[in-house]
Write a structure and sequence with these properties.
By secondary structure, this protein is an alpha+beta fold. The chain has helices at residues 4-16, 20-39, 77-83, 103-130, 201-211, 213-216, 246-251; strands at 44-50, 55-65, 74-76, 92-97, 137-146, 149-153, 158-161, 177-188, 191-197, 220-228, 232-239. Strands 5-6-7-9-8 form a 5-stranded mixed β-barrel. Strands 1, 2, 3 and 4 form a 4-stranded mixed sheet that branches. A two-stranded antiparallel sheet has the order 10-11.
């Protein structure tokens, strides 16, 4: 029968996309922190997740001595022999500790460490996901506004569309869909910050590449792009196929430019 703890680890790993070994390591660290907090930093503690039993095991190691001077690190030979008849002076004896004796405060401490580590792991996943997506177009939903900046929900992450990367006179309301280009990804204290842009020339180029098959198929190449966001844009194109008109491919039917949301 799968234990509640093991089931929880597997569920969090599946739902949050966090590596199972990372979660187990986090859990072990949190329990170790709780034990140290309760018994003091001098204790030699080892914490390990028993995958077969689905539970955390905690051991305290003490040196076997004739006469105990420091109870935090030593155990008498007489006591040691009661636990292990083959114990000798100079041996190190591992004593199993019941995690339930940590109490409510220790359990809360462990919970807080787990939550923090999970947040850190999620932040790392978000950063790894977006760090290689610069110049890529993403779609999101306007979540809120912050001093002129637009906070965009990208699903697994929040992104910022700064005021200077917004098209002049363009307005959004909460809940509106927005299309933008990933301009940069930074690691900050609160987690990875994804910076978006709707004014960068590369945004225009990416839009054309997404919506003009000849460009995505590399038959037509964009040589350069220039913009006055919200006013006018220009791109320079050429074709590798003499039968394909690069301008006609980009302009589309009846002279209407294909890319939208630029």
């Amino acid at each position: 029968m799968v234990s509640d703890l093991k089931r929880l680890i597997e569920q969090v790993s599946r739902d949050k996309g966090i590596d199972r070994d990372t979660l187990i390591s986090t859990l072990e660290d949190s329990v170790r922190s709780a034990v140290k907090k309760k018994f003091g930093p001098k204790r030699e503690i080892e914490v390990a997740f028993n995958d077969q039993l689905g539970e955390i095991e905690v051991f305290e190691f003490k040196n076997v001595v004739k006469k105990v001077i420091d109870e935090a690190t030593e155990i008498s030979l007489e006591q040691a022999k009661q636990m292990d008849p083959e114990s000798e002076v100079g041996d190190t004896l591992g004593l199993r500790i019941d995690p339930n004796i940590f109490g409510r405060i220790a359990a809360q401490s462990a919970k807080q460490v787990i939550i923090q580590r999970m947040k850190d792991a999620e932040r790392d996943l978000v950063f790894d996901d977006f760090k290689d997506r610069k110049s890529e177009i993403v779609n999101g939903i306007v979540q809120r506004f912050d001093k002129g900046n637009i906070i965009v929900n990208l699903g697994r992450a929040e992104a910022v569309l700064p005021t200077n990367e917004q098209i002049p006179k363009e307005t959004f309301r909460q809940g509106d869909r927005v299309r933008a280009m990933v301009l940069d990804v930074k690691k900050v204290v609160k987690g990875p910050q994804v910076i978006l842009s709707r004014t960068h020339p590369n945004f225009l180029m990416a839009l054309f590449e997404n919506e003009v098959p000849e460009i995505s198929d590399r038959i037509v190449e964009i040589l350069a792009a220039a913009r006055e966001p919200g006013s006018r844009s220009k791109i320079s194109v050429r074709s590798s196929d003499s039968d394909i008109d690069p301008v006609g491919a980009c302009v589309g039917m009846k002279g209407s430019q294909r890319p939208r949301s630029a």
